[in-house]
Here is the input.
Amino acid sequence: MTSPQNDPAPQPPQGHTHAHTHSHGPAAPVSRHLRKVIAAVLIPFATAVVVGLIAFWPGGVPDHERTGVGFDRQTQDGKVVQVVKVDCADVNAAQVPPTGDTSTPSGREAVNEQEGECAKATIEVTSGDDKGRRFVEVVQPDAPRQLKEGQGVVVAYAPDAPRDLQYSVTDVNRKVPMALLAGIFALAVVLVGRMRGVMALVALAVSFAVLTLFILPAILQGSNPLVVAVIGASAIMLAALYMCHGVTARTSVAVIGTLISLLLIGLLGSLFIGWASLSGNTDDNTGLIKGLYPDIDMSGLLLAGIIIGSLGVLDDVTVTQTSAVWELHQADPEMGWKGLYRAGIRIGRDHIASVVNTLVLAYAGAALPLLLLFSIAQSSVGTVANSELVAEEIVRTLVGSIGLVASVPVTTMLAALVVSADRVGPGGAQAATAAPARTGRGRRRKTG
Here is the structure.
């Protein structure tokens, strides 16, 4: 009986030697013909984006006369140099209701302001033309923001007010903790992602530059918000995907899938914003924008926000689906496009469930104070949903989610068709993976 040590090593079937040779390596390149087809779609699209950027480039934010209201105030940096506790009755003019009624919130607040202990803070301006100037700020005991000595603050400047009232504290200076947090984020991305992480940070910087240098100023200049958002989002998409994932056919398929989904989101958003009569002017901030720039189309601005907000999640979904199909093809190059699509869509269903839930919870979390107010008022679900402020968020969430859901089968189908069409072409994926296997068998025959 032959001992196991002398048994020849089992040989894999010749017809399947190439099937798993490169299952963990980089994706095989697609054929030259398919690269030409993809280029024929993407090059005109990228050219149109560049032309759009040039045609709608704003050249800066238009000037306007400052109102001194909300975000439209002149601000400088300041520092709290001294805080002294004083009797509220000595420093403020709050009056207890003549009836002595403290059952109302305003009545209770007035009593607290009269009987409590206030903080008298001395603030020094640390930037601008009035650097070194000091003023006094009185902080009520019930104020949500309490000042402490040495704290950095943001002060608003009202040049038309009396000298003693020209400066006031509007917020706390958070630049140091925010910069530190951003540094920790960047370090974590680079340590884990390495070169991919570095490119992701570069793509993030490009996205922020497009948003601040093109999209926002162009809208303020009076350009159509929808057109500007489509051009800007397309530029961000091209830069982010190709920088992070390389100039490959796989990335190009993800770009095409993202583009189709963005077009669907734009069409649905335009339809339902008009049908639901959403004005886009629902709070103090949008009201201030409309007052400063009356020519801005606020409903178009709402649609632009939906498109830009959906782009980030769309990139994630389309890249994941494309990569999944490519890896499935590498694991089994004999699988046809139908098999690749079925396997990829099963992965996509799990992705859809988590992403849609994430979107809904994100919007609900952002609108939580508003929902609490409706709850306090004991409003019905129908009343809440019908109010324009909530209806905007519902349309934003549902339109974006429909686009995300649609991106999964669209991108999966595109990826499956591309990689499966390459199997029989010369120089395609099958040939690329089979060549090393034949070389290996040749070496075994020589040494055998």
The chain is about 60% helix and 10% strand.
